[in-house]
């Protein structure tokens, strides 16, 4: 649709112009710092930052209903910069001009309702939000689109040049960082640090394919993160982990999309997300808080954060009795099929503590819950979901296992609707499915395959056949007909097919 075809009241707001006044705000000492330099922690006290719009209240000049219309009409525009996460420009990066926006097709991932079989099994209505359908096949693209649009803006303004971006990763962040940096070459070069043998082959192939410098180091993600922090402190690099508050802004789009896809009715909704470095749950809470503040959604949805019992520092924190005695204790992680979330010291923990408190206060009741699930439950639920038409990764399995826990604990009920996060594409983690099907999980995972969920290919090559097809060696017509008949017969027998 062309601009002049939209209602007159909406037209002036359809194409956003740079607005607002963004600053980094420290969660420790509340100091505010200009966004003109790339900051990851507070120069005064070292605490993590969030980006705050000093002029956020200007957005309240329009009613929530008008905002809903603006966002819904924006859906019809054909402007690339507004097709992705910047449909929510005013809430994500209002100072970024549209010609700085980097759009690689991220965001607006499908919400797919579970079939009746799966809803009956879990006991409630739910949808998967398939964030594996982002360009690098995970939700991290949302954050990268924001962080790289901002860096692109600084380059265009002549504030920085020759950027080397760097990140630590369990696989998804590095894939996304390398992809977005590759798009902006030669202005940006990319380097990624991975824990040796702790990312899947598919994930390793991604930054390699995008041309990044890939470094593997001993240890787990938390060790990589420390090295990357040392590099960001001591050298001129752009840190692309979610410690970078621009990443959080982009990932807020996840909440905005859920709000929009469910017609802004959030009172009976439950949003389930796995927790690793905790940037995602931070963004999800912050996003819903902003929309609620402006009156775009009717209520704050419930949020369930899920961790495996092999990497559960956030769950452990919230299992302690609330109050001054609560202490966050980083942990040593154990092997987990939710490998992207195998993190013992999440960098966003201070943000989580701050936002959970705020979220529950604004809601007037506890609306954020934390579940712990077993490795076995993660695998069983992932495979069960995918046997019912989904493409959930192991973290999607973790979400579904978390929903089961939330129902069991009475945090959510069968009258509500859940939107659960499959953070990446199933194919990135197919190695865990293979281990399940071949019963080859190393002991540390503590996963036993359930026979009903196991599947294996069957090789069909009847022993009596003298010749079978081979590439480059055509078969005689009769030999081929014999082959087809024998193989079809054996398959029909295996499947118990009746002759017509
Ligand atoms: N799961 C992450 C770990 C790093 O997370 P980030 O959001 O802080 O960048 C990954 O995929 O690497």
From TrEMBL:
GO molecular function: L-serine ammonia-lyase activity; pyridoxal phosphate binding; threonine deaminase activity; threonine synthase activity
Pfam family, one: PALP
Catalytic reactions of this protein: O-phospho-L-homoserine + H2O = L-threonine + phosphate
GO biological process per UniProt: isoleucine biosynthetic process; L-serine catabolic process; L-threonine catabolic process; threonine biosynthetic process
Every Tryptophan synthase beta chain-like PALP domain range: 104-417
Recorded metabolic or biological pathway in which this protein acts: Amino-acid biosynthesis; L-threonine biosynthesis; L-threonine from L-aspartate: step 5/5
Modified positions (N6-(pyridoxal phosphate)lysine) in chain numbering: 140
Enzyme class: lyase
Needed cofactors: pyridoxal 5'-phosphate
PROSITE patterns for the chain: DEHYDRATASE_SER_THR
EC assignment: 4.2.3.1
Keywords in alphabetical order: Amino-acid biosynthesis, Lyase, Pyridoxal phosphate, Threonine biosynthesis
Record bears the keyword Lyase: yes
Family of the protein in this entry: Belongs to the threonine synthase family.
NCBIfam families linked: thrC
The name this protein goes by in its record: Threonine synthase
Source lineage: Bacteria, Pseudomonadati, Thermodesulfobacteriota, Desulfobacteria, Desulfobacterales
Name of the gene this protein is made from: thrC
